[in-house]
Amino acid sequence: MKRRSFLQAAGSSGLFLFFREALARAPQLQPTRPAGYPGDLNAYLHIGADGRVGCFVGKVEMGQGNMTALAMLAAEELDVSLDQVDMLMGDTDLCPWDNGTGGSLSVWQFGPVLRGAAAEVRAVLLRMAGEQLQVPVEQLEVKAGVVLVKGDAARQVGYGQLVRGRRIQLRIADVKPKPVSAYTLVGRPAARKDALEKVTGAARYTADLALPGTLHACILRPPHHGLTLLSADTSAAEAMPGVRVVRDGQLVACLHEFPDQARKALDRVKSAYGGVETVLDDRTIYPHLLAKGSGYQGTGQGDLKAGEARAALLAEGEYRNAYVAHAPMEPHSAVARWEDGRMTVWTGVQAPFRVKAQVAEALGLPAQKVRVITPYIGGAFGGKSAGPQAVEAARLARLTGRTVQVVWNRREEFFLDTYRPAAVVKVRAGLDPSGRICFWEHRVAGTSERESDIGYDLPAKRFEGTGDGGDTGSTAAGLHPFATGAWRAPAANTNVFARESHMDVLAAKAKVDPLAFRLRHLSDPRVIRVLKAAADRFGWVAGAAPSGRGVGIAVGAWRGTLAACCAEVEVDRRTGRVRVKRVVEALDMGLVINPDGARQQAEGAMTMGLGYALTEGIRFKGGQILDENFDTYELPRFSWLPELDVVLVDARDLPAQGCGEPPIVCMGAVIANAIHDAVGARLFELPMTPERILQALA
Amino acid sequence: MAQTTSFTLNGKPVRVTADPSRMLVWVLRHDLGLTGTKAGCEAGLCGACTVLVDDEPAPSCSTALADVAGRSVLTIEGLARAGVLHPLQRAFQEQHAFQCGFCTSGMILKAYALLKKKPRASRAEIMAHLEGNLCRCGAHVRIVAAVQAAGRTGGAL
Questions:
Q1: Share of chain A above pLDDT 70, in %
Q2: Fold agreement between A6-194 and A206-275+332-407
Q3: Chain A residues closer than 8 Å to B149 by CB
Q4: d(CA A473, CA A325)
Q5: Nearest to B76 among A65, A200, A604 (CB)
Q6: Mode of pairing for the β-strands spanning A551-558 and B72-74
Q7: Does the ipTM surpass 0.95?
Q8: CB distance A201–B35 less than 8 Å?
Q9: Which residue of B has its CA nearest to A62?
Q10: Quick one: CATH architecture of B87-156?
């Protein structure tokens, strides 16, 4: 048999008995990984002399709980307790390469690599124990990191005694990770490894490092986007005691031992800016996107013209969503230290290895002279994919020769954010005389068509997006007036809102219950199962909308994970205010590693999703971002909290997928559909503010 | 100009020599090295920097050092006693009433002020009390449950 390393083994998946057919149609469920993960076991795992397991991971913990889920995978394969595993994440000198934390990929992409490495380490340790105890490996078992002779527990040796902190040299090919049926830890709720630090205030985020001699830098920013610095008078700032001013091209910064004093100094800088800013605003952006959207590409099948010719009824809709901010509670932060020709940057970013390259390039340093270390991250949601703050801190550290800390304030956070792109989706669809959809066209300007097709049985369909901008719209020239980027499930919130709203538009025209109408167009067993799971838990009672009850349903997907939501709302016809009373979400994410972690992600996504559905949209006029803090940019608050219910579909026959992003994709549509059911008004634009609801009711 | 301000911090007397108009959050974090208190919005709009001043919650980003002279300040670092977690901390830990953890210190201290007055606060009262504290991760439902659970432990507060 061919020798295969754990990395190759990780590329193959287990047996799928029940969903072969669904899998064949969804090849993305088969884990594939980027090349680049190291082949050496020691890159991932270190067994200390005390028997503790060090687990090294290039992904980062930003609240989503992958620290715990990945530790569970390692502990499971090694037969140690979760408490025996120490996680070290996101340090480019110490951790194995990784392409970044996002896309709900931690478990899907890295999980099999870690499992493979841990399974091989366990096999190596068993062989070493067999030699030491002089028994065949078959007579050994492992309990909490101690290898015991079966039936003779007095003869035992711990992992720590076997390895004594050394690198593992032995290799065993073709070690199979445990079958799911043998799991004792994975699949059961686990205590988060970061809990104690986070409830005691001991958890260190970038701004908490307090390295000796640190100078805090506040950086001059333009008042509007599109402007460049013409001149800056820094004399008043320089006159303040302890203040140091750095000027390097467009970079002007005030530095001080205390951040508040640095800010005070920056406030005294007089600056002049010039240039041409966009003439767009948060209303004219939509016709602009439609006019400038280009490079449309996508997928489809069937004859749209023939389909339309059979239509007894046509429905068109134009669905819009605003730019949305990430607004993590922890602003972008970085600390940089320049020492002996090496730059070390501590920074809360999602992709430390990419930021390492970014810093090296910006400073003209060889990559091996840059180290990025990721402390705890106070939320990211896609907004910390790049590391502009790391480059700023590194530049200032080299210019001053001091350790420099850069922490954006809230205005900078809103102004410099890479927003979820605004988008317009045009949907055209028709019903044939029997009440079935006979064609469907979906065209989105501003983002890609990603996740616009959930596999409804449509004889003729076409899904297109402005492909030259990608999922995030970030690379399309002239399309977006600001930087856009990944925002929890890029493109999917936009496309699922349009598709699932339009399904309800058609269901209403056909006078059919929205759930029944969806099921009429579904044959994929996974999608049917997840929809029914949500409907069953919700207690869905069939009825054509608008029924006046204020209930809605929607289904969506994100990279192999399926999500279905039911919601109940109350609409105040006088004020236009919506109260979301209850949301049930069912998720099929394949094997669930930590059910409690999955629930946390689902609850969090449902709560966060209320924001983009009801209030969140960046207001701007030209290059001026009008939202600068939480007084005008409204995040979901406690008083909004609906009753939340999460159903985890048992799909352990499928490989573990992901759960950070999928549970948010239905939130816009399910609330829009529930509002329509309540009052008969269809909302075509997110956020669904009271003003827009009153307009729709008028 | 720098002058000396005396107050009680986590049960112990402290003297800080600093400009008394500086905001408490920076003095706590940088002069006193207590980084459990977080700066989120610097405008009293998010609650991440909440501390207790004489048992009343205050946004430390908008509370001047001078305002706490002679008073008693409690931060997250002062909540556990002799290594034993406060019931609120234990409840937040057990219920996983956090994700990224950046708002957690503020949430716990804000809730502490409520439970001190009303240990058996209802779900509605807890939600109303925490309204000004933002959590972007959406841990709200667990935070409410954790505060309720801590309240049920009654006398331990």
A1: 96
A2: yes
A3: none
A4: 15
A5: A200
A6: unpaired
A7: yes
A8: yes
A9: B100
A10: Orthogonal Bundle (1.10)
